[in-house]
Amino acid sequence: MADDDKIKAIRELKSRFDHNNSALKQMESQRRQNEVTLRRAAFTAAQLDGLPSDTPCYRGVGRAYFLQPKESVMTYLETGIKSCDTDLKRLTSSRDALVKSQEELRKEITELISVRS
């Protein structure tokens, strides 16, 4: 392999490696955000669970709070918990695939660098 071709291949692999690395960082950020949302929703649901069913509750929407029945707030929280759980599973499987791809790219780059032309 000519030096120019080898350098071009290494640059292409490095570009793909960097792209995957930034995608991994973004997924990690999304995962942390989902974990925080999940914990908050689970904690709030646990606190509301002990209240009587006819208790009016406030549900935060953006910067506002709206008075709603407890059942409505609990349904909203349960939906949020299920959604976050599904997203966490999806992000974990995507992360595993990207980590595997990163390892393969790392091996290819190492192999190209170590090959003597």
UniProtKB/TrEMBL annotation:
Q: Which UniProt keywords apply?
A: Chaperone
| Family (UniProt) | Belongs to the prefoldin subunit beta family.
One biological process term in Gene Ontology: response to cold
- What is any Pfam family matched here? Prefoldin_2
The protein's name is Prefoldin subunit 1
One CC-aspect GO term: prefoldin complex
Q: Which SUPFAM superfamilies does UniProt cross-reference here?
A: Prefoldin
What top-level branch of life does the organism fall under? Eukaryota
Please name the source species.
Answer: Auxenochlorella protothecoides
Which InterPro entries is this protein grouped with?
Answer: PFD_beta-like, Prefoldin
